[in-house]
Amino acid sequence: MCPDCGPIDRDIQLETSVAAERAENIHVGAGSTKEGFVALRPCVAEVDPVAGTEQCCNILRHKVQTDPRLLTLRVDGSLYFVNVRYLEDYILNRVTGDTALQDVILMCSAVDKTDMSPLESLEVTKHRLHETGIHLNLSKVKAPVMCHLIRSDFLQERTGSVYLSEYDAFRALGSPDRSQATTFAERETHVE
Could you give phi then psi for residue 140, rounded to 5 degrees? Predict the structure, then answer.
């Protein structure tokens, strides 16, 4: 079963049964549908910059500037224990067999909430990508999510960088010398 987050009206449960989950779990319980469960997955789109601009858009809908060494994925939605495994699987399946790929950029502009599960999953994804010679980078990380990253080991053991914008990441990682953009690590970090 999934980890129990302990709603306000009851204590955290360390044990449960399939029958109890079917009766009470908001994700797989009574009244939930397969369609509703599938809707919990984050929407993930592959994006690249529109030629001549700093705007990154979906590669299926716009004429974009691509670089075979880079994969930029925009995550549209919060990340938490219910949906983060889908993202991990999506990334790992997408990079499999792509021999030109050097960097994955996870664009987090729509990720405004998270718990510790996505950080653990991103850590696993980062290490699995690193084993294949691919770096995991982040861009446009909102302050609440960045606070979680700073308090975790994710930034200390990183294989990539955290960029202020997706265009900065694309420009830096797509350039031969990779030194043209400002990364988050180059700025002062302050967490209250």
Answer: 50, 50
SS3 (DSSP) at 61: coil
The model's pTM is 0.71
| Residue partners of 69: CB distance under 8 A and separation at least 6 | 100, 101, 102, 103, 173, 174
List alpha helices for the chain, DSSP H: 18-24, 34-39, 84-95, 116-131, 143-151, 166-174
Count CB-CB contacts under 10 A for residue 89. 12
Residues of the chain with CATH 3.30.750.24: 41-186
Q: In the predicted model, what is the mean pLDDT of the chain?
A: 77
* Model confidence pLDDT, tens digit, residues 42-71: 788 899 888 888 888 888 888 888 889 999
Per-residue pLDDT tens for 93-106?
999 999 999 999 99
Q: Which CATH architecture best describes the domain 41-186?
A: 2-Layer Sandwich (3.30)
95's tokens: 């990079």
